[in-house]
Amino acid sequence: MKRETDRDSVIQLHPDDNIAIARQQLIAGARVADGAIVRGLVPAGHKVATRPIKQGEAVKRYGQIIGFATRSIGTGEHVHVQNLQVGSIGDDYAFAIDKFQTSLAVEREKFLGIVRSDGKVATRNYIGVLTTVNCSATVARAVADRFRRDIHPEELDSYPNIDGVVALTHSLGCAVDEEGDGLAIVRRTLAGYAKHPNFAAVLVIGLGCETNQIDSLLENQGLATNFALRTMNIQTSGGTSQSVKAGVDQIRQILPSANAVTREPVDSSHLVIGLQCGGSDGYSGITANPALGAAVDLLVAQGGTAILSETPEIYGAEHLLTRRAISREIGEKLLERIEWWKSYCHRMNASMSNNPSAGNKAGGLSTIYEKSLGAIAKGGTTNLMDVYGYAEHVRTAGLVFMDTPGYDPVSATGQVAGGANLICFTTGRGSAYGCAPVPSLKLSTNTALWKRQADDIDLNCGSILDGEKTVSELGREIFKMILETASGEKTKSERHGYGQNEFAPWQIGAIL
Q: Which H or E element spans position 427?
């Protein structure tokens, strides 16, 4: 039987690569990539060797090292965790060598935003119920539930301009060192949400005896109570029932003023986009991530801001970001965070290299280097302007980096605390996620996922893989969708009611 070569069954990303990516499941005997004959089964999204690879030789994708062969690999063999591992790739950081002058658009795109009294621009209009400690979570949720449109629609019927009342609770706030990093991160996160423009007003509820005292939180973060920032303690309010009643009364007082907003055309430079990827696969770095990167380039040209994060998921690719850093100082700030994570993992008996999840591996990602190289594509091609700590307020326009874990809810929580007013989230394996009080757009890396989970995905970037659209075309489409979403168009996750449960401040340090 004659074997036919199907070049379209694989993707070769760079001339220096010694592997190709399977567009579909490859079976033994298929001819691909310069006549290489497939040995065994190679799942869709996985790698196949296009030429012999010696033991110890670097395996390359995107023209970059993703690992080293643990044994000799023959042409046509499946390249994955069974024959690939990480190793030293050197430290040629070449600070700022690729920086360039960003050309700003002469005419700015507009979206319909909500301009607050301090000049900040919101993409949504929520009332928030925050907690200082886990002990006040039940009361906070009971207060917010009183205003759920699916349970008590009468409460908000007269307030159509309010997107909802949400309780953002957490498991922290006590039994920690009052001067330690753990409490500092919680306080910074809560303050970022309390000041977020997407909240018309916020009620902070405490228990009364916790380490994270309300007065200390406010003083530490430079906050002061006013009509739109209110506080209460359960112990001084008479217990659970009385506290719920008092909290509901406080929200009812806020409703009329919170509803008194209108959307108006505002400059797209007011957009701050948090970039996320979760449930990544072998296509993430080919379709959705570079398409989102193209949208980021358009946003930066408009004077907007994009926050790249997930420090453990740029490990092995940080040298590409240091080259784009606006200065050596900014590049070194990024490397300081990488070194912190190495030390942190060592103390916790963990490994930076053991990052790809079971789903990542099933989707074709073999090493953290491979995952990271695809992940940074979300950041586009412009300069890296600054590096921020977790939940720090982002003040710099353009592409910036925020130090966060790779776990998506924790990472996105830090981005929102830092000022992100919209999240863009790419996924190859599937995701069900939202992030109140900001909208979260989800982008699929492949059409199979889009068909399987269209209920949760806002845009299919698998059309790039299918040859229907280019990366730049999808980038423009994503940017248009960003503007529409910022103007009030609901995302899939918002329609499902996601957002309250996904608030997850980074927990670090000893719980005493």
A: strand 422-427
